[in-house]
Amino acid sequence: MEFMAEHQPSKVHQPPEIIVLGPPSVFKLYYKQFSSRFRVLRPWESPLSLPRFLTAEAQNTQAALISDGIRLTSAVLHHLPSLRLVVATSAGINHIDLVECRRRGIAVANAASIFSADVADLAVGLLLDVLRRISAGNRFVKGGLWPMQEAYPLGFKLGGKKVGIVGLGSIGLYVAKRLEAFGCAISYSSRKEKPSVSYAFCPDICKLAANSDILVICCALTEQTHHMISREVLLALGKEGVLVNIARGAVVDEKELVSCLQSEEIGGAGLDVFENEPSVPKELHELNNVVMSPHCAVFTEESMRDLYELMCANLEAFFSNKPLLSLIPEE
Amino acid sequence: MENVGVLMTCSMSAYLEGELEKRFKLLRLWESNSKAQFLAGFGESIRAVVGDTKVGADAELIDGLPRLEIVASYSVGLDKVDLNKCKERGIRVTNTPDVLTDDVADVAIGLALATLRKICLADGFVRSGQWRNGDFELANKFSGKSIGIVGLGRIGTAIAKRAEAFGCSISYHSRTKKQNTNYKYYSNVVDLAANCEVLVVACALTNETRHIVNQEVIHALGPKGILINIGRGPLVDELKLISALREGRLAGAGLDVFENEPDINESFFGLQNVVLLPHVGTDTLETSKAMADLVVANLELHFLKKPPLTPVV
To answer: Which B residues in the span 57-86 are in contact with A, Cβ-Cβ below 8 Å?
Structure first.
């Protein structure tokens, strides 16, 4: 009997097409790798406006990789009729019109909790810096001032302090776990009480601040949380209180924060985020009890590599009809 | 006890000075122009010395105090006290362990975070307005790194406990292997350094541990390695450290202590990848008070002919 081999028509393997909007930092860092695995549409390189570019080039594009600096509105989505997947490079997705995505059956994947450790680490690092004057001390020594000034101002002990965590999500929990090891007592406020944790729940933010030495902001920015850390909350935190914000600048009333710091109505602040980045109130530049970082809590080599791998894994799963790794479920 | 002559070696704490003044006849060594003259004039009246990490009780001082009964150090480290001389003369020595453990461990972790996450650089980047012109550089993650601790005493153990909450793995070197711990033990510092990413120096300074972090250890730690020193400056070969940092053979360092405080080697000043602190490991309001109270308690108990709380000799 003759053995008939199956005839496979030869196919030129085309990498799947994705459109990148932003572009996000992780794409810039891993440009070569992304470009070797996918055919990438790059609207920022085109002289055309975004809507024109999308109309001309992206009518058949099924997947998009977007930075959190891009607002993915229904108007933009309208120009992507074949879109079935949006991959966001952040955990927060308030820049994406989720309602419109659900209506169109577009799946959304985010960065899940891969950054949580790095963000929590920066919260602890900023807090230790404020309490123990690490950046100020470094400036003091490198300025050659140590031999001239015998008595350097004392810092404040972290152990035994009461920490109030605002928002006990993945990041808030990581912060709690770390600060417990330093001997801190943890309380929290959240939209809902979490029965699985042993920390004290305090839904009233003012009460939480009044009962805490340290307030760490770990919540998402929403209409409800906008300027939630008001003058009242700051005054409740008090003269020796320290505020740490690694969430979003607008959760804190920045004008009031600056005023309270200047009038010494709160003790200090560690801030990775601001209302009007990259602008930072210049009054903060002069204060030694404030430590600032340029919204860089997720920007470590390790997290960028983890993010690159997660983004690719989501895209490749999508193109092979396999389940996504970090799909945001319908609520 | 108001007639008991107590000598403070330097102005280590205004609070401590006040408390000693209330209870004893306090003399201040730093107010005198000449140690020799002071000893000639007042040596006979001194029964207690309160020293610290800057000015302790060396052989010369002890020899000049024939009625010295006790040295109460405002520190846990005793490298500035001539312990052998004290033993010979039957002089009591006390220090301030435990009350400062947490604060020193906190600074060790704070320095590790500041170094790996480039917090001081980031703060400078914002303060100088550079953020308006572009993004800050990438930093390195602390969580999950392997930590090697040189000296698993009270402070080393407290550092390990904190690092574990960040998902770090812990290994250590100590004079002897500790029985009640699951951390991995290395019998020498070179092997420890070769097998960790962050090396933390937390041991006491003795004749045996001088330059325990030497060229070989620095080489083993490697170009991605970070060194944190909250022990004593002379534990590290500073010149070798500086050239390794300059030449990229070590990624960074966080240092609270130096071989020559406060006139430290100025080559450190220009290094972007180091974080420097002016020996502030115990310098919090809360701990400096607790240390001072312990010094006073030790002295009072001694002069009431009761056993002191924290004797070493």
So the answer is: none
Q: How confident is the model at residue A151 (pLDDT cuts 50, 70, 90)?
A: confident
Q: 3-class SS at B213?
A: strand
Known catalytic membership, residue A295: yes
Q: Which of B102, B276, B284 sits opposite A141 (nearest CB)?
A: B276
The pLDDT of residue A12: 60
Blockwise average pLDDT, block size 10, chain B, 313 residues: 95 95 97 92 96 95 97 96 97 97 98 98 97 96 98 98 98 95 97 98 96 98 98 98 98 98 97 97 96 98 97 92
**Structure tokens, B195:** 């097998």
pTM over 0.90: yes
Residues of A in contact with B136 (CB under 8 A): 293-294, 296, 299
CA-to-CA distance for A17 and A37, rounded, in angstroms? 9
Instruction: Let me know: does B48 contact B4? Beta carbons within 8 Å.
Output: yes
What is the H or E stretch that residue A66 is in?
strand A63-66
Asked if B18 and B11 count as a contact pair (C-beta separation under 8 A), the reply is no
Of A227, A219, A182, A214, nearest to A203 (Cα)? A219
pLDDT in tens, A240-271: 999 999 999 999 999 999 999 999 999 999 99
- Cα separation, A233 vs A231, whole angstroms: 5
Q: What share of chain A is helix, strand, coil (3-state, %, to 5)?
A: 35, 15, 45
Task: Please list the alpha-helical segments (H only) found in B151-237.
Answer: 154-164, 189-194, 215-221
Beta bridge partners of B268: none
Provide the ipTM: 0.95
Identify the burial level of B213 via C-beta atoms within 10 angstroms of its C-beta, where 0-12 means exposed, 13-18 middle and 19 or more buried: buried
